[in-house]
Design a protein that fits this description.
Endonuclease III, domain 1; 10 helices; mainly alpha; 0% strand; 212 residues; elongated; Endonuclease Iii, domain 2
Amino acid sequence: MLLNNKKASKLIKILDKSIRNPKTSLNYRNQFTLLVSVVLSAQCTDSNVNKVTKNIYSKYYRPQDFLKLGEKKIKNLIKSIGLFNSKAKNIYNLSKILLEKYKGKIPKKFDELMQLPGVGRKTANVVLNAAFNKPTIAVDTHVFRVSNRTGLTNGKSPEQVENQLLKKLPKKYLIKAHHLILLHGRHVCKARNPLCKKCIINNICLYKNKYE
């Protein structure tokens, strides 16, 4: 079962009215540090990333800063974050590419972002949305779960969910949709024990196993 366009529009409208200032919880200083934070957030909580980057970004916030640091020093700075070895390597290499190919700027095109080390579909969409205000939808575990659970989508992969949301939701909500759905999933429509009784979209949601 899927929600029709009218109900899908109503659902996102209700979330938009109830969730104030929907935006990424990652702290960043500029577009480059946003990219670095999103790369660091893979399989890691935003709060943990923020703890680590708090002291980093006061000193290092440009591609040339990280290139000068080198991979080994980057590892030491982010060693409390999971997968820090591969992430340090990716951050060093993407910094190098940004300087060599884009004069230190973050590219605004999806395909160009996807070519950067450590940048996947979700990361590219987050950067385009948060840094350039593009109507993209990044599908993380929360967005994937909530979209399929409520009946907004029935996708079997993040890309399918992304494409279905882009087609179904009204254009006026697309810039905020990712964060609206994500925040609802993080605080209400949780993976385990969703708070269905308190849910403001309970009467629209198609979740079969609603918690009474």
